[in-house]
Amino acid sequence: MRFLCLYRSKNAETNKPPTQQEMEAMGKLMQEMAQAGVLLGTEGCEPSAKGARIQVSSGSFAVNDGPFTDANGLIGGYAVLKVNSKAEAIDWSKRFLAVVGEGESELRQLREMS
Fold first, then answer.
1. Cβ count within 10 A of residue 21
2. Given this model, what pLDDT does residue 95 score?
3. Which range (4-18, 65-79, 90-104) has the least confidence?
4. Which domain holds residue 25?
5. Phi-psi region at 72: left, alpha or beta (left = phi > 0; alpha = psi -120 to 50)
6. What's the whole-number average pLDDT of the chain?
Protein backbone atom coordinates (compact mmCIF):
# COMPACT_ATOMS: atom_id res chain seq x y z
CA MET A 1 0.00 0.00 0.00
CA ARG A 2 1.07 3.57 -0.66
CA PHE A 3 0.70 6.62 1.54
CA LEU A 4 1.09 10.30 0.81
CA CYS A 5 2.86 11.95 3.71
CA LEU A 6 2.17 15.71 3.83
CA TYR A 7 4.56 17.63 6.03
CA ARG A 8 3.47 20.88 7.65
CA SER A 9 6.44 22.75 9.05
CA LYS A 10 6.24 25.31 11.81
CA ASN A 11 8.86 27.19 9.77
CA ALA A 12 7.50 26.69 6.23
CA GLU A 13 7.64 30.41 5.44
CA THR A 14 11.13 31.29 6.67
CA ASN A 15 12.91 30.61 3.37
CA LYS A 16 15.94 29.82 5.55
CA PRO A 17 17.98 26.97 4.04
CA PRO A 18 18.67 23.93 6.23
CA THR A 19 22.01 23.73 8.00
CA GLN A 20 24.70 21.32 6.81
CA GLN A 21 23.97 19.10 9.83
CA GLU A 22 20.22 19.07 9.05
CA MET A 23 20.93 18.22 5.39
CA GLU A 24 23.21 15.34 6.39
CA ALA A 25 20.67 13.90 8.83
CA MET A 26 17.88 14.17 6.25
CA GLY A 27 20.09 12.66 3.53
CA LYS A 28 20.91 9.71 5.76
CA LEU A 29 17.23 9.04 6.51
CA MET A 30 16.20 9.42 2.84
CA GLN A 31 18.97 6.99 1.80
CA GLU A 32 17.82 4.48 4.41
CA MET A 33 14.20 4.80 3.26
CA ALA A 34 15.19 4.40 -0.41
CA GLN A 35 17.32 1.32 0.35
CA ALA A 36 14.39 -0.18 2.29
CA GLY A 37 12.17 0.34 -0.78
CA VAL A 38 9.84 2.60 1.22
CA LEU A 39 10.52 5.99 -0.37
CA LEU A 40 8.98 6.39 -3.83
CA GLY A 41 9.42 10.16 -4.07
CA THR A 42 9.86 13.30 -1.99
CA GLU A 43 10.23 17.06 -2.42
CA GLY A 44 10.22 20.17 -0.27
CA CYS A 45 8.08 23.20 -1.09
CA GLU A 46 9.15 26.80 -1.59
CA PRO A 47 7.45 29.44 0.61
CA SER A 48 3.82 30.23 -0.21
CA ALA A 49 4.81 33.61 -1.68
CA LYS A 50 5.87 31.66 -4.77
CA GLY A 51 2.52 29.87 -5.04
CA ALA A 52 -1.16 30.44 -5.70
CA ARG A 53 -4.51 29.01 -4.64
CA ILE A 54 -7.10 28.31 -7.29
CA GLN A 55 -10.75 27.83 -6.33
CA VAL A 56 -13.84 27.08 -8.37
CA SER A 57 -17.40 27.77 -7.30
CA SER A 58 -20.43 27.55 -9.59
CA GLY A 59 -18.09 27.41 -12.58
CA SER A 60 -16.22 30.62 -11.69
CA PHE A 61 -12.53 30.50 -10.88
CA ALA A 62 -10.68 32.64 -8.35
CA VAL A 63 -6.89 32.79 -8.22
CA ASN A 64 -5.13 34.14 -5.13
CA ASP A 65 -1.37 34.59 -5.18
CA GLY A 66 0.65 33.88 -2.04
CA PRO A 67 1.88 34.50 0.51
CA PHE A 68 -0.81 32.95 2.65
CA THR A 69 -1.37 33.99 6.25
CA ASP A 70 -2.41 30.60 7.64
CA ALA A 71 1.21 29.44 8.05
CA ASN A 72 0.35 26.48 10.32
CA GLY A 73 -1.67 24.85 7.53
CA LEU A 74 0.93 25.25 4.80
CA ILE A 75 2.53 22.17 3.30
CA GLY A 76 6.31 22.27 3.56
CA GLY A 77 6.92 19.10 1.59
CA TYR A 78 5.69 15.63 0.78
CA ALA A 79 6.80 12.03 0.43
CA VAL A 80 5.18 9.02 -1.18
CA LEU A 81 5.77 5.88 0.85
CA LYS A 82 5.27 2.24 -0.10
CA VAL A 83 4.72 0.23 3.06
CA ASN A 84 2.96 -2.89 4.31
CA SER A 85 0.68 -1.13 6.80
CA LYS A 86 -0.53 2.18 8.17
CA ALA A 87 1.48 1.46 11.32
CA GLU A 88 4.68 1.22 9.26
CA ALA A 89 3.88 4.54 7.56
CA ILE A 90 3.37 6.11 10.99
CA ASP A 91 6.74 4.77 12.18
CA TRP A 92 8.58 6.23 9.16
CA SER A 93 6.75 9.55 9.65
CA LYS A 94 7.84 9.67 13.29
CA ARG A 95 11.46 9.13 12.23
CA PHE A 96 11.13 11.91 9.65
CA LEU A 97 9.68 14.33 12.20
CA ALA A 98 12.49 13.48 14.64
CA VAL A 99 14.96 14.70 11.99
CA VAL A 100 13.13 17.84 10.78
CA GLY A 101 11.93 19.07 14.16
CA GLU A 102 8.77 21.05 14.83
CA GLY A 103 5.81 20.35 12.59
CA GLU A 104 3.29 17.67 11.77
CA SER A 105 2.74 15.01 9.14
CA GLU A 106 -0.58 13.95 7.70
CA LEU A 107 -0.75 10.48 6.19
CA ARG A 108 -3.28 9.74 3.48
CA GLN A 109 -3.54 6.29 1.95
CA LEU A 110 -3.51 6.48 -1.85
CA ARG A 111 -6.14 4.64 -3.85
CA GLU A 112 -4.76 1.76 -5.86
CA MET A 113 -6.16 1.73 -9.37
CA SER A 114 -7.33 -1.71 -10.47
1. 8
2. 94
3. 4-18
4. 2-109
5. alpha
6. 89
Maximum separation of any 2 CA atoms in the chain, in Å: 49
Q: Compute the distance between CA of residue 40 and CA of residue 20 in angstroms, rounded to an integer.
A: 24
Instruction: Spell 38-73 as b/e; 16+ CB within 10 A means b.
Output: bbeebeeeebbeeeeeeeeeeeeeeeeeeebeebee
CA distances in angstroms from 70 to 11, 13, 51, 105, listed in the order given: 12, 10, 14, 16
Structural domains of the chain, count: 1
- pLDDT tens-digit series, residues 47-81: 888 999 999 999 999 999 988 877 667 888 899 99
- Residue 61, domain CATH: 3.30.70.1060
Judge if the upstream peptide bond of residue 18 is cis by omega within 30 degrees of 0: no
pTM attached to this predicted model: 0.84
